[in-house]
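Below sits my pick:
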Amino acid sequence: PARKRRLRRVLLRLLAVVVAIVAALLVTVFTVDLGPTLREIAEREGTKYMERPMHIGRLSAKLTPGVFVVEDLLIEGLTPTDRPFLKAKKIEVRLPWWTAFNRKLIIESVTLTDWEMVVESWPGGRHSFPKVMPKTRGTGPSRFTTTLRYVLATRGQFTYDDHATPWSSVARNLTLQLHRSDVTNDYRGTATITNGTVKIQAYQPFRMDMRSRFSLNGGKVHFDRMDLTS
């Protein structure tokens, strides 16, 4: 009888562990489609903020609080006939939304996978990069702050096309990591490119590979190191 009781306790504990693992997997993996109404609101507000048409294929939330997933995101170019500014297969945002109650919204992380960004410029300083900062309201300090902790963008491609010179570069297999440093009060990151292409005027294009380390402060990128092979 004593051995049976011990065996029963062991089996019950093992069952509890299995149930806990299954519950954790369900909470982590299972997602809920937020439906067309919230998706349309997100598209409308994103379009208004960037002053550029934005489209979202699917908007969902994981059961884990504060995790949102955007699929098939598209931000149009400067005109309907231009190439899209950004296409992203999947964007996952970890956003503890309750931090907004004290007017200090914290975005823990943003992860992009399978994405492509295109920036074009023309004579006279005209370019396709959209507005990414909110319009200034008043002269006093903002009463609401947003802090981004970490960004990881993988399997990406960045294309810059200067129609005035002309010259262009395509950064393929781009991986970008960016994190906020509370010590230096700025952002630190790394970027790697493989099998990129640079084309200058009518000359033959050539290959480019790059590994770099940089910091971002005040809208300027400071490269601590750049290994460029071409």
